[in-house]
Write a structure and sequence with these properties.
The protein is α/β, with parallel strands linked by helices. It has 8 helices and 7 strands. Helix content is about 50%, strand content about 15%. Strand 4, helix 4 and strand 5 form a beta-alpha-beta unit. A 7-stranded parallel β-sheet has the order 3-2-1-4-5-6-7, with helices on both faces. The protein has a single domain, classed as 3-Layer(aba) Sandwich (Rossmann fold), CATH 3.40.50. The longest helix is centred in the middle third of the chain and has 29 residues.
Length: about 250
């Protein structure tokens, strides 16, 4: 497929799944607006993709923790015809005891994974509505499908993303906007040296876009989610995942 001339915005673009989305969308012919906190890494990524793919690029340095994050992003992208938005950046996963977390840490996780994601989706969906079409991928987590003790607020925030995304998959069809929630399991990145490679994760998302409301890449991840959601009672699933998560605390 060719999308020459159209623009895609990828948040959290310099590592892991976000970096792979940038690479695959560039290969498909999209011009790219790339967002991350580190301006020097962004500039290097933009130069690399522009040179390799012959596309236009725009670096958007922004920390989504900033109170004025949306005005920064709007100023950098409102003149670009953003046809594809990958809502990838969010709070880092935390594995530990809920009562060991500070109020600031909990609120930051919830803000980044709920309010910030919501405002970005609404902003770019409004623009796509005016343009008559578009595509949005919300990068969530398999943690949103299964309640995870010892990752309590993170798991809850990902469940929010999943529920929101499935509803918008249906609702935004009225405006010719495809919406997909991507729910990967562990995926290799700068912070994680195990799990799936980012390439098949992104391929699964792009293949599912416009066909279904959400996708879980990898058969093992699919089986885990199905088993705990459909083959076990809610109580049994929570106990099973809690026992597993407890062993990971050691």
């Amino acid at each position: 497929m060719s999308h020459c001339g159209n623009w895609a915005l990828v948040t959290g673009s310099t590592a892991g799944i976000g970096r792979e989305f940038a690479s695959q969308l560039a290969a498909a012919g999209f011009n790219l607006a790339l967002l991350a906190r580190d301006a020097s890494q962004l500039q290097a990524q933009c130069r690399e993709l522009a040179s390799a793919r012959g596309i236009d690029t725009r670096a958007v340095p922004c920390d989504l923790n900033d109170s004025d994050f949306l005005s920064i992003i709007a100023a950098a992208t409102d003149k670009l015809p953003i046809a594809f938005f990958v809502n990838n950046a969010g709070a880092e996963s935390y594995h530990g005891r809920f009562l060991d977390r500070t109020v600031a840490e909990i609120e930051s996780c919830l803000r980044l994974n709920t309010l910030v994601q919501l405002r970005l989706i609404q902003h770019f969906a409004q623009r796509m509505k005016m343009a008559g079409s578009g595509a949005i991928i919300q990068v969530s987590s398999i943690a949103g499908h299964i309640p995870l003790p010892f990752m309590a607020e993170y798991s809850a925030s990902k469940a929010y993303q999943l529920t929101l995304g499935e509803a918008l998959y249906y609702e935004l069809k009225d405006h010719n906007i495809d919406f997909l929630t991507l729910s990967p399991g562990a995926t290799k990145s700068r912070r994680l040296n195990y799990g799936m490679e980012p390439r098949p994760v992104v391929r699964a998302a792009l293949a599912a876009l416009g066909r279904q409301p959400n996708v879980i890449p990898g058969w093992q991840n699919k089986w885990s989610a199905f088993k705990h959601r459909h083959l076990k009672s809610r109580r049994a699933a929570v106990s099973s995942m809690g026992d597993f998560q407890r062993t990971q605390l050691q």
